[in-house]
Amino acid sequence: MPTQWLHVLGRAPAVGHAGCGAFRLGSGAQLRRIAPVLAGAAGAALLWPASPALQEQSEPKAPETGAKKPQRTVNVDQEMLKSRRLFLTGEVNDDSAKVLVQQLLFLEADDPEAPVTIFINSGGGLVHSGLAILDVMRNVSTPLKTVGYGRCFSIAAVLLAAGTPGHRSAYENARLMIHEPSCSYPKLSASDVILKAEELRHTKETLEFVLSVLTGKPKADIVDAVARDRYMSVQEAKSFGLLDTVISRGGVKAEVPPEDTEMAGTSAKE
């Protein structure tokens, strides 16, 4: 600090003590004169705004209250698989057949004795894909309950009828349809047309045989039934042998043996 300011403050170095750091207090009059100056400087220092960084550090953080709970997401497909309920919807093709076959084999390995319910709502599709599903359904040891809803046309009606006997059902407003297999081929040579026709005849006879076994009807009756598109209500399908029970709002209406009542899901009514 310059010497002139030390004299003003009354704190000039004492004579004979240079470099020792000793100071001499000024008179009372001097202190009274500089007191207002010191007070103003101190007030200005207190009122000087702090830097933003210091303000952020000095502001206390509010305590966190009401921490949000993590939302639980539900995968419906996984939940249905856990409850051993499978779905065949839309077109029957290689992709849908792969999914359903994988699920059937998985559930059989998990518990071969526990029933599996297959819900079907399909307008049909590729015959060979449907027959692939049919072969697996008939060879797994797991009891299979089939339930039709919406529509079950063509190969989908065959799969509905392929459930375990006594456990094939459909909701009261579902519609079923069976018919001969159909195809459309691009321009082919005569030899190729003959080969395709032979393969189509084989597929037709296979479906007629399968329907005869599933419905208990003679093959001749099946041939006549599938000559044209045959649409059926659930009651007509039950009479034809494609279904065992009809699920209505009042319960399941069908002739179900007493021991099978538990498998049907509700009490049976005549």
From TrEMBL:
Protein family according to the UniProt entry: Belongs to the peptidase S14 family.
PANTHER family per the UniProt record, alphabetical: ATP-DEPENDENT CLP PROTEASE PROTEOLYTIC SUBUNIT, ATP-DEPENDENT CLP PROTEASE PROTEOLYTIC SUBUNIT, MITOCHONDRIAL
UniProt GO MF annotations: peptidase activity
Keyword Signal: no
UniProt source species: Durusdinium trenchii
A Gene Ontology BP annotation from the UniProt entry: proteolysis
UniProt keyword annotations, A-Z: Hydrolase, Protease
SUPFAM superfamilies hit by this protein: ClpP/crotonase (SSF52096)
Descriptive protein name: ATP-dependent Clp protease proteolytic subunit
Region (Disordered) location: 54-73
